[in-house]
Design goal:
By secondary structure, this protein is of the alpha/beta class. It has five helices and eight strands, in the order H-E-H-E-E-E-H-E-E-E-H-E-H. Helix 2 links the parallel strand 1 and strand 2. The longest helix is centred in the first third of the chain and has 16 residues.
């Protein structure tokens, strides 16, 4: 990567963040607990898998893995709140839930997802977010009694990489493998010589 001043989180930094967050999670759950580990699809999929591996290395093998398909960006680079969603693919009733999110932006999506989990009967929600944008949280957002564990604070720029989606263009494709760092979308467009949809 030639434009290193644009890198927000390196691959090494990412591994450190995931390990640190896994250490924080183990302080919130008992090893014997059967934990619904739900990720917000699709952007958090890679982070969710890496965090799950770190938890397994720490003896947490009772993870009921699932997801909620939530759309909040649509055709925009700014979170619009929840545009569409599905319920979690695992049962959360009367259980403590580990919710995995890639990025906290306005907080509107996260607020919705947390409320939905409680509405479905979750006893407690522990949110693990890879990154949080500085200064973008909507002042009306209320996460209630949920616990938030944040990996890294980043500037208010649209980012891709490590599973974060750019209109679902980046998810699961070669971009994450070719460019393992989180980079501002404009830098990525220059490197690929393409204009991503706005």
């Amino acid at each position: 990567m030639t434009n290193t001043q644009q890198v927000l989180v390196t691959e090494e930094g990412y591994r450190r963040i995931v390990a640190n967050l896994a250490n924080q999670v183990v302080s919130k759950f008992e090893k014997h607990e059967r934990i619904p580990m739900v990720f917000v699809a699709t952007g958090a999929a890679m982070f969710w898998a890496d965090l799950g591996r770190e938890l397994s290395r720490r003896g947490y093998h009772n993870l009921d893995c699932g997801y909620m398909d939530v759309t909040s960006y649509g055709e925009s680079n700014i979170s619009q709140g929840v545009l569409s969603s599905t319920d979690p693919s695992v049962d959360v009733k009367n259980r403590r839930v580990l919710l995995v999110e890639d990025i906290v932006d306005t907080g509107l999506t996260l607020e919705y997802v947390i409320k939905r989990l409680y509405d479905l009967g979750a006893v407690d929600v522990v949110v693990v977010a890879l990154v949080k944008k500085r200064g973008t949280l909507n002042p009306s957002v209320d996460f209630g009694r949920a616990t938030l564990l944040i990996g890294e604070s980043i500037p208010d720029v649209f980012v891709v990489g490590l599973g974060m989606d750019g209109h679902s263009v980046m998810v699961g494709g070669n971009i994450g493998r070719m460019y393992p760092e989180l980079v501002p979308i404009t830098w990525l467009e220059q490197q690929l010589s393409v204009k991503l949809p706005e």
